[in-house]
Write a structure and sequence with these properties.
five-stranded mixed β-sheet, about 300 residues, alpha/beta
Amino acid sequence: MDMVKAKYLLALAESGTVTAAAERLGITQPALSRQLRRFEEELDLELFARAGSTLVLTDAARALLPTCRRLLAEAARAGRAVEVLRAGTAPALRVAATPTTISTLLAPFIEEAGSAIPLLTSIPTSHYEVFDALEGAADMVIAPIPPGREVASLPLGSVPVRAWVPPAHPLVAECSGAATVEARRLLEERLVLPSRRSVSRGVIDSFIGSAGLSLGPHVECDDTGTLCALARAGRAVALMTELQPDRLVGFDIVAGEESIGGVPLVAAWRPGHFAGQELADLAERFRGFIAGSLL
């Protein structure tokens, strides 16, 4: 498959029109149209159909898109591998994770590690699509769900779901310095917690249900910064996996002798990656960072 034409097909799929795709690629619209028609001829497949004045992708073309993405990703990885061989080390690596994991764990880790690790950049993705990023631009993913056997991985530990309040909140005095709060008591408060799209929300709902309780007044939000802000403002008790948010006091949530637990995380990367050893070392260092932050 011609890599350039695969790039053109993806540009059309992502841009929506030939005009927009041509502008994105920096070529003329007639030139792009000619290349796309040649691609059809080379593959002996009908890739495009007319819907009025608009060129649309056929089912065959859409079926080819994942292959095109993998082809371009492999080409990019090959180019970066050459750079690493020339330099003797990976100058930069890309890590895919959920926005919450990026803001609460990865970003603080990057700041603390400084120049002791390769330059890291992040790729936001959803919980359930994170491993797909390894087929794209990501060198490593950090996920809350178990990886398949086809990837190399390292468990990073579990990040607890805790209840966070400002120091002046009545719960701080009421618990008299204790590090725990009973779920039944907590549910008397107005809560702000992640939506059901979040793995941590599944942990919360399962724990509350197994304790024979149910959620009372609450609001949902998937942005950790907003959760922290609402808690600091005294508007609600925030239930989240943030490790050590500023100006907030955290409580482990219990129901009798049972604890709510947390969200397990794992780092994963492709076997045979050109920076495989650096990724393994990075994952080990990240695991130590998480463990140290929980002390």
